[in-house]
Design brief:
- This protein is globular.
- The protein has 2 helices and no strands.
- The protein has about 70 residues and is mostly helical.
- About 5% of the residues are buried.
- The model has no long low-confidence stretch (mean pLDDT about 85).
- The protein has helices spanning about 25-30, 50-70.
């Protein structure tokens, strides 16, 4: 276990400053891996509540990521 390796430190969402500092590395990693995408091309809405549908999609993408990586 440990922290994921972040390759690209540029976050494509204009509202990234709204995310908590402790969460930014994980958000960057999830975005790099395609697990997390914004609500729009420029907005992640990190302070908003996630819907059940959004959480379902995130979990599905994470499981697919694990399957691809065979972790």
């Amino acid at each position: 276990a440990g922290s994921p390796v972040i390759i690209n430190t540029h976050f494509p969402y204009a509202d990234m400053q709204d995310a908590a500092d402790w969460s930014k590395d994980a958000l960057l990693w999830a975005a790099e891996e395609g697990i997390l995408v914004g609500r729009t091309d420029t907005s992640l809405a990190p302070s908003a509540y996630a819907t059940r549908a959004e959480i379902s999609v995130i979990l599905m993408r994470f499981v697919e990521f694990l399957d691809m990586k065979k972790l």
